[in-house]
Design goal:
Layout lengths: L8 H16 L9 H8 L3 H4 L6 H23 L6 H18 L2 H10 L6 H26 L9 H22 L4 H17 L8
Helix pairs in contact: 1-2, 1-4, 1-6, 4-5, 4-7, 5-7, 5-9, 7-8, 8-9
Length: 205
């Protein structure tokens, strides 16, 4: 008889999600099979599918975990009393910290977004990106109302550039094989971003 403790279903699901995220940090998510996931969990595939009805359901649960944790981290980072541009910086740094802690997340998201079909996981990620963009647009609009942004700034492009800066740091860390590198570079990258969007009087030396 196995001595492995029987965990509550929800706890087993959460451990599976974390295992998938860890595995995505070590290999291409496209090569990740349910057999490899089960092996990491020290389970049979049959036991794995008692908690998830399909492989798509596993990826959907992982995407929901990422979306919930990331958006919660961004919420916690921002103080309602913050100046909008300061709030943007806090969001930027919180996102970078999340990636540094969970380096498998960018690979996972990119892998799901490359699917031609609208998988359940891709729908979750798409919805999260919509919420993320809406949040950025709100902050940029608030900053514009304060006169903190450059004249005639394209706020939609500024939101895209914000996310693009994070993606660029992620790519650099993957090329270098050093995820901690993004922690060191993030403040300097955001400083360049801020200078690019801020009104001259709003620049911070």
């Amino acid at each position: 008889m196995s001595s492995r403790p029987r965990l509550p279903a929800e706890e087993r699901r959460d451990l599976t999600v974390r295992a998938v995220i860890d595995l995505c940090g070590q290999q291409d998510p496209a090569t990740l099979t349910t057999a490899k996931i089960a092996e990491r969990m020290n389970l049979t595939q049959g036991a794995l599918f008692r908690h998830f009805r399909s492989k798509d359901a596993i990826w959907e649960a992982v995407a929901e975990w990422v979306a919930r944790r990331l958006m919660r981290r961004l919420d916690a980072a921002v103080d309602p009393a913050d100046v909008p541009l300061d709030a943007l910086e806090r969001m930027f740094m919180a996102h970078i910290a999340f990636i540094a802690r969970h380096p498998g997340v960018p690979r996972l998201m990119l892998g799901q977004l490359q699917h031609e079909r609208a998988t359940p996981a891709r729908r979750v990620i798409d919805a999260m990106l919509v919420r993320y963009r809406e949040r950025l647009m709100t902050m940029l609009t608030d900053a514009d109302k304060r006169g903190d942004l450059a004249d005639d700034l394209d706020r939609e492009a500024a939101a895209v550039a914000f996310i693009g800066a994070i993606q660029g740091l992620v790519v650099q860390s993957m090329i270098a094989g050093d995820v901690e590198r993004i922690r060191a570079l993030a403040p300097r990258v955001f400083s360049l971003y801020r200078r690019g969007i801020a009104a001259t009087r709003g620049l911070v030396e």
